[in-house]
Amino acid sequence: MSSVRTFDFPIHASEQSFARVLAASLPVAAIFWSNRLNPDIDGELKSQARALAGKLLIAKINAAENPELVHRFSIATTPTLITFREGRELARAENISATSVREQLDYVLGVDRQPRAAAKEKPAPSARADGGAKPLTVTDQTFAREVMQSPLPVVVDFWAAWCGPCRMIAPSLEKIAADYAGRVRVAKLNVDENPRSAAQYEARAIPMLLLVKNGRIVDRLVGALPEPQLRAHVERLLRAA
Q1: Is 163 a catalytic residue?
Q2: Best CA proximity match to 122, nearest among 157, 72, 76, 85
Q3: For 32-87, how does the pLDDT look when each residue is reduced to its tens digit (9 = 90+)?
Q4: Environment class of residue 45 by beta-carbon count within 10 Å: exposed (0-12), middle (13-18) or buried (19+)?
Q5: Strand partners, 220
Q6: Which member of 58, 61, 117, 163 is catalytic?
Q7: In the predicted model, is pLDDT for residue 126 greater than 80?
Q8: Largest alpha-carbon pair distance within the chain?
Q9: How is residue 4 annotated by DSSP?
Q10: pLDDT in tens, 101-117
Q11: Whole-structure pTM value
C-alpha cells in the first residue's frame, strides 16, 4: 500500500496480516515472541512506538500462533527482532534485551551504520520457538551472517526441491539439528532460490554439505551419506581447530 495509518503503539500481526504490514511505506520492526514477552522489552517497544509514530511500524508476532511466519523467517529462538525496509529484511537480533531494541530501530532508520545488537546478541543454539531444534533456512542475503560469522560450527545443506537424495538425508539432518542443538548449527540453502551462494561455494552436485567452523570451510561432502557417516563428520567438525 502506498500510505499507512500512523500507529503510536505496537500492532499485533499474524500470518494473514503481516504481508500488508511489510507493504507499508514505513520501515518495520517485527518482534517474534512466545510464552510471555519480557515486560521490560514490551515497555521499551511501546515507548519507541510512541516516539517513532509516523516513522516506523512496530509489529508483535506470537510465534506459537503463527508457525508459517516462524518457518518463513527462520526464527531460531525468541524473542527475535527483525527490521525491514521496503519489505526486505535489513537486520535481526536474537535473544534481545530492552537496551538493544533502540539500537536496532536506530539502524533501520539510518541513525546507526551497523546493527551492533544483531552481532553481539545472537545466541549459540539453533533452538526453535517451540522449544525444539530444527535446521535454519539461509539465503544469499543471510549466508555470511548465519554461516560464516556463526559462533557455532555449521553444517550447510545445499539442496533443491526436485532432488531425491536431498529428501533422503533431510530426516537425518533434522535429527542432527536436534541432537547437537547448542553445539552445531544445521542450515539449509535452496540452490534454485539462491544461485549466488550455490555458485560461490561450487555446489555443482547436490546434496552437498559444507562444514564450516569459525568462518573456515573444514570439509565438503557430496551425496546422500548414511546418518552414521554424517554424525561422524559432525564429530570431526567439533574437534577441528
Answers
A1: yes
A2: 76
A3: 988 778 888 899 999 999 999 888 999 999 988 888 888 888 787 788 888 888 88
A4: buried
A5: 210
A6: 163
A7: no
A8: 55
A9: -
A10: 888 888 778 765 454 44
A11: 0.49
pLDDT of residue 66: 87
- Reported as a single tens digit per residue, the pLDDT across 3-41 is 446 788 999 999 999 999 998 888 999 999 887 788 888
Identify the DSSP state of 146. I
Instruction: Give the integer Cα–Cα distance in Å for 193 and 27.
Output: 25
State the helix-helix crossing angle for 98-108 and 39-51, rounded to 10 degrees.
30
Query: 3-state DSSP call for residue 168?
Result: helix
Give yes or no: 29 in active site. Answer: no
Residue for cell digits 539462491?
A: 194
| Side chain identity, residue 171 | P
User: Tell me, what amino acid is at 35?
Assistant: N
231 vs 104, which has greater pLDDT? 231
C-alpha cell at 239: 574437534
Catalytic residue from among 26, 30, 93, 166: 166
Average pLDDT over residues 141-155: 92
DSSP single-letter state for residue 135: P
- 3-state DSSP assignment of residue 239: helix
Cα separation, 185 vs 23, in Å, equals: 32
Residue whose grid cell is 546507526? 112
User: Per the structure block, which three cell numbers stand in for 165?
Assistant: 537424495
For helices 164-179 and 227-239, angle between their N-to-C axes, nearest 10 degrees: 50
C-alpha cell at 124: 549459540
Give the DSSP letter of residue 97.
Answer: -
* CA contacts within 13 A on the Cβ side of 100: 22
